[in-house]
Structures are given as structure tokens and as C-alpha cells.
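Lab manual, section 2.4: Encoding a predicted structure.

Procedure: take the sequence of the chain (445 residues), apply the prediction step described in section 2.3, and record the output as C-alpha cells. A sample record is shown.
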Amino acid sequence: MDTLTLIFTALGSVLLLLFLVMKARLHAFVALMIVSIGAGIFSGMPVDKIADTMQKGMGGTLGFLAVVVALGAMFGKILHETGALDQIAVKLLDHFGERRANVALGIAGLICTLPLFFDVAIVLLIGVVFAVARRTGGNVVKLAIPLFAGVAASAAFLLPGPTAMLVASQMKADFGWMILLGLAAAIPGMLLAGPLYGNFISRHVTLTIPNDVSEPSLGKGQLPSFGFSVALVLFPLLLVGLKTIVARFVPADGQLYAWLQLIGHPFTAILAACLLAIYGLALRRGMSREKVMEVCSAALQPAGIILLVTGAGGVFKQVLVDSGVGPALGNALIGAGLPIAIACFVLAAAVRVIQGSATVACLTTVGLVLPVIELAGFSGAQLAALSICIAGGSIVLSHVNDSGFWLFGKFTGANEVETLKTWTVMETILGSTGALVGMVAFSVL
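Recorded output:
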């Protein structure tokens, strides 16, 4: 099939996805499955191969992500239930003071979201924003924007976050470089999009504490120590980073290297962190084993829906790859002279604007550029830089088809216009800054 037809198939598939989700009001999981079949048929893929490709895409995506998401969900829930996340937020606020509370909230969002989903992190931390706003009498916008920026930056760029982990695994990027470049993208992005932009936009948009929000009780006297809380959150990152750094100085055929590969794998790192949180924190603070089981089970319920939608996104990605749609569009972009790093950002941003989901935007973009990337022979560090470019593009220009858009409005009381001025611009600054870091890193590495 000719290239033009394949490109129209890609565009038509994304438009159909938008229609099914926004107009027909189909669940994203069902819509992605329908669009995947349609993309396979209209691209000329043999019909008897479509189901096999869909199974391959689902298994290839969830085979890695299911373990990370399940363990990460339990880990984050235990940290919340034991007060570790509250301790981090409260201590940061005490250290920075009320005048710099916006910076403290941005850093708290960045750190506390490492073991959490975006939606869960907002639910758990938004109460701190209202508590500070009550104490200072300040504009909610000035405090909420930094928190959301920190949470969004962590979710998009930092391991072991599900989105960053998914993109890195699909791109076969080096996880150690992904951590370093993720930090290089997330920190300046959070500062620019959070405290700096929050200060600016708070002069033009004013939001007050919603009437239905009650005074939060953080129970300072019952919290674990700040140092131990931070150490728990960073523990899986340290294991992954240890493998990347130390493995470079030992023989690749040695036993130590083999053990480092096991210990530093995301599966092992998050499992170890989860066990440490259970036995080193929850049970030691008096939480019963039955309560621990209840907390872990509750954490897995929202994870199931996220995994299904993400798996369906993986199905769509695999159909794009195997049908030839991905290679056609990727080659067209490269043939037009667009550098690969910029192409990754532009494609992810386009899919994000059209269909809303950052995760689906990442997976779709990977499916479109992976055939081109595999032929180029890029290093693991360069693939990590391209992953950052994709992650940055996947969060820009959030609007009414993105759940985060409505989440911001729901918690802050902002209307649609106010949400566009605050949340949408913040996401665009954050994603563009992160992607710029990825582009520079790709050219240097």
C-alpha cells in the first residue's frame, strides 16, 4: 500500500478514536480496540494476522507494566496510609516557610508522586494546598499550580512513574540515563511551570478554597521521620541507579554484573521498596497484617482500569507498527528533514491534542517512530533522550479531552476558561521545557 494511504490511515485512526471517546462516549479501552482493528483492516494488513498483532501488543505492553503498576500502587498506598507522604509535604513547608510555600509544594509534588499515579497523587496532596491557603490567606492558584506542576513533571519524566517507565521500556532506553535525564527535565520544568508561572498567573486568575473542603488533619505527631520517608521514596531509584553506575566498572560476564542486573531491574527495585514499606514501616508502626492486606488490595483496584487502557494503547501501537503505518509516517517525517528528536515531540504533541491521554500519546508515538529508530542504531542514552522528548510532547496543550483538565477544575473550583489559562499553559510550559532538555541531550549524547 502506498505511503499516502498509510498516512491517511494513521490520521483517520486518531480522529476515529477522538470521535468514539468524545462523541460516542465509549470507554477508552473499547474505543482503542475498535480503532486498532480498523487501522489493521484499512492499512491492508492480512485480516487473519490482526488478532495476533493485538495480542502481541497487549502482552508486550502489560508484560512489563503490570508488575510495575501493581507494586507501585501498593507501595504508594502504604506510604500514604502510614503518613510518610504527609511527612514529606509538611516538613518541606516548614523548611521553606509560608513565603516560599509554592516552591515547597512543587518539590513535594515531584517527590511524593514517584510511587503514585497522577490522579492518586493529586487526591492525596491537594489538602495540603488548602491547608496552606487557609494559613496564609493566599490565592489557591499560586499554590495549586506548583503542586500540579510537580506531580505532572514526576509522572511524565521520572522513574519509577508508570508513563516514564512504559516509554523507556518500549524504546529500550537505558534506565540509568532515563533517571538522569528525567531529573534534568523535571526539575527546571517544574520550577518554570510551577512557582514562576504560578506567581504570574495568580495576578490574573483568583481562586478561593472550595466550600466543601474541610480542614485536613495530617497528624504530625504520628508521622514517621522525614529522612526515613524520603529514603523510602528514593529507594527504588537508588537500586536502579546503582546497577547503571556500578555495572560500568565490572566485567559484563562476571557474577557481580549478573546480580546487579537483577537487583537494579525495576521489578526487583519496586518489589524491594514495597517489602521495605510493609515490614520496615507499616508493621513497625502498629498496622495490623489484615490492614496491610486491605491497603494493598484497595491500591490495586484503580490500577486495573489504568492497565487495561494502557494495554489497549499498546495494541494500537503494535497495529501501527506491524501494518506499516508507523514506518510510513515516521519515514515521511524524517524524509521531510525533521530531526528525529523534534519529530518525537511533534508527533506526541499532535496525538495528545487530538485524543487527550498522555499514555496513549506516548504509545502511539513510539509505534510511529520505533521502526525508524531501530534502523538508526541509537545508544541507550540517546533512546532515553528521545523518550524524554516523547514524554514532553505527550503532556502539552491539555484541554477538554484530557482527564487532568477536569481534575484540576474539580479540585480548585476553576471554570473552563480559568483552567485553560492555568492548567493548560502550565502543562505546555512543563512539556516543552522537558522536551527541550531531551533534544539538547540527544544532540550531545
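Check your result against the sample. The longest helix spans residues 47-81.
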